[in-house]
Amino acid sequence: MRELPTLARYPFLADTRQYIKDHGPAITDLLHDLLYERARLTSIERLDNALSDSDVGERSLATDADCIMEILSYPLARMVTVCISDPYFQRRYALGEAYHTYKYLLTEPTSFLSAVAKELGLSVHYTPETRLRLFFKDYLRYAPTTYKEWKMVNREVAGGYIALSHKDLARVVQETLRARINTELSGRPCDEDVNRIFMEDIRRLQTILQQRQRRQDAVPVGKLHPEHLPPCMTDLLAATQAGENVPHMGRFALVAFLNSLKLSPTDILKLFSTAPDFEEEKSRYQIDHITGATSSTSYKCPGCDKMRTYGICPTEKMDGLCRRTRHPLNYYSAKWRQEKKQ
Ligand code: SF4
Q1: Which atom of ligand 1 lies at the shortest distance from residue 321's CA?
Q2: Which of 40, 144, 240, 308 has the least CB density, counted as fewest CB within 10 Å?
């Protein structure tokens, strides 16, 4: 079993779960007992920080009590996130936890980083004598390959493994953890007791989210009608706006799709600007290139078959219209026609 400060820094590890199982309070005590009020307050702090800074924030871990409250605040924060019941918020929270972990991992020995990566299911090879290496399938799945320096062609590959620096592997772990938290929280039911105890903070955060949404809705964005978007574009847009790692092909398809709806490059840029890690110059360059503003070619959005091949058609979300259409743009126009008829 690892030491308490380590468990507090990495509350998603199996050791931390085991610690809670062996030494933690019963869930009713955690929710009601005055003894755990600090853990409850810290859980809300995690959420507030995730929403405002994309980082759940750092607290003192100087004493055992500090560490225990930090450890217990993690499952509480997750339970409250489920009750807030907002996909955007859930993504921000997952990003906040993952980014915080990334920052800690940068300061750890590589052997520890490698052990955490393995626990998250990544196929990593590391010995003090050799370089860190990650199996290419894990790399393609989690590395932010949208960026030039992460593209496979710019990496050293041998025997199916990609050589990585400590910092790079920490970044891949961040992405893996973000995806894992998102998956774990999706579709979970809200616990009634949690909802009651945290009612005030849940309502407060929901109000902030609604206000943000209204502000966003008020931004004029050319001819885009979000309610007509097919599931693939809804997902890609939501992930881009939440600052998630959208694969290159996903970003390409989204920009080409929006361009076909006659949104100007500036309007597309405006849509992307809500991302916490938004970099105007980089995004503008990509958008201008795809839309043909700075190149001789204006690229077209791929059809549904290609979208599936690239793994950016969320097949589990396909609806009746998806099954009758072969291109995301046709889906969008069909939605228009359906609405007109009604
Ligand atoms: S079937 Fe086509 S339109 Fe529907 S989600 Fe998949 S790619 Fe998008």
Answers
A1: 4
A2: 308
